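Summary of Year 1 activities. Much of the first year was spent building the evaluation harness for sequence design. The harness presents a backbone, in tokenized form, and records the residue chosen at every position. We chose the following record to illustrate the format because it has been used consistently in internal testing since the harness was completed.
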């Protein structure tokens, strides 16, 4: 009897153990599934948030890039303009000097050469000045030299042919004409010459102006000379009318002038 009872209890306990093991296995599977669902739910909003923030940051960078580039480009242009202004201010203004005939004086006759008395009409900078009726260059460089004279001549004189003396300046000369003279059957003109600082006794012809007067009563013609030449410090420029000491020169400022403009 006792043996049967113990056998029954043992069988019951064995069945109960199997049931409990089964339930524990089921609960473990349910727990793992629940844990997986919970982790998935927790990770999904976080991933979307990160992706959303990344998208916003990317969009913000895209919005910022054009604005930043435009600002940098504008700043670069302003810096470039400022550098150019500073360079321009360092170079200083262009120097020039223009002389007109002095109405209070008469032309100076030196043998067969007539020299016009000058007075300053326009000047800027320190590279060019006037000294004793001549234009003086203070700096080495290239200059535009120009001149114009109006004169009247009462007598008829044999035609004179002036020969241009070639020098190192001749390749740079740009010749045009306009001194107004009056004399029948006469060739008249002027010379712009320079005196070097190293050899004050010798001059170099820079520009020549030459025109023939028409065959008529009270003839008139024009002659204007201009040219680009290379000059050196302390060079002196002078405008003279050769072989016409009897010429009557107009002293009007709009007709008779002589000047130099610095090019570099």
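For this record, the design step produced the sequence shown next.
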């Amino acid at each position: 009897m006792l043996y049967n009872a113990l056998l029954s209890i043992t069988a019951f306990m064995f069945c109960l153990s199997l049931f409990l093991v089964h339930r524990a296995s089921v609960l473990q599977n349910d727990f793992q599934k629940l844990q997986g669902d919970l982790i998935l739910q927790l990770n999904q909003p976080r991933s979307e948030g990160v992706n959303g923030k990344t998208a916003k940051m990317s969009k913000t960078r895209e919005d910022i890039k054009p604005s930043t580039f435009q600002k940098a480009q504008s700043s670069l242009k302003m810096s470039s303009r400022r550098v150019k202004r500073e360079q321009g201010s360092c170079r200083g203004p262009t120097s020039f000097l223009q002389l007109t005939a002095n109405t209070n004086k008469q032309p100076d006759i030196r043998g067969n050469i007539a020299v016009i008395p000058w007075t300053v009409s326009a000047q800027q900078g320190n590279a060019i000045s006037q000294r004793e009726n001549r234009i003086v260059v203070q700096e080495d460089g290239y200059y535009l030299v120009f001149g114009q004279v109006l004169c009247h001549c009462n007598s008829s004189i044999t035609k004179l042919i002036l020969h241009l003396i070639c020098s190192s300046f001749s390749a740079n000369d740009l010749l045009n004409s306009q001194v107004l003279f009056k004399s029948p059957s006469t060739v008249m003109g002027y010379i712009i010459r320079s005196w070097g600082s190293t050899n004050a006794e010798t001059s170099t012809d820079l520009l020549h102006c030459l025109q023939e007067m028409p065959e008529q009563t009270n003839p008139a013609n024009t002659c204007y000379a201009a040219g680009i030449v290379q000059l050196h410090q302390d060079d002196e420029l002078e405008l003279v009318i050769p072989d016409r000491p009897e010429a009557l020169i107009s002293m009007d400022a709009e007709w008779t002038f002589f000047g130099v403009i610095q090019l570099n």
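The chain has one helix and 14 strands. Quantitative recovery figures across the full test set are reported in Table 2.
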